[in-house]
Amino acid sequence: MGSESDLKIAEKGIDILKKFGVDFEVRVASAHRTPELVEDIVKNSNARVFITIAGLAAHLPGVVAALTTKPVIAVPVESKLDGIDALLSCVQMPPGIPTATVGIDRGDNAAILAVEMLAISDEELSKKLKEFRKKQKEKVMKSDEKVKYLFY
Fold first, then answer.
1. Given a cut of 70, is residue 111 above it in pLDDT?
2. Overall pTM > 0.90
């Protein structure tokens, strides 16, 4: 996270990662105020995927992507301009240094995307993902059953 104020967004992802039993580390490091810390974290991490959360200029995802060849998932945060400024900073990366960017404040989707990436080489995680999707489908089907007769 670029700052502690992003913790509420991170918590959405933390909940998902815990449900899937994925190990993670949460850190605060600013691309602008503590670039050395960002570099130290990235270069010394055993992470296979990085989730970066940033608002305003939202340069953290790009800086992390520049420091690693591992996948970087960017979560733009609503701060100014309804988060559009952060979203554009995350998606408008130069050629060769991509970030996978999820929707504004979607720490949960970032975690799911990370799990999907990890599940490519982890059959147990893949099974958990399939069960997760099955439960999502069941929830929608129950909602449909509940709602479809309300307006007849």
1. yes
2. yes
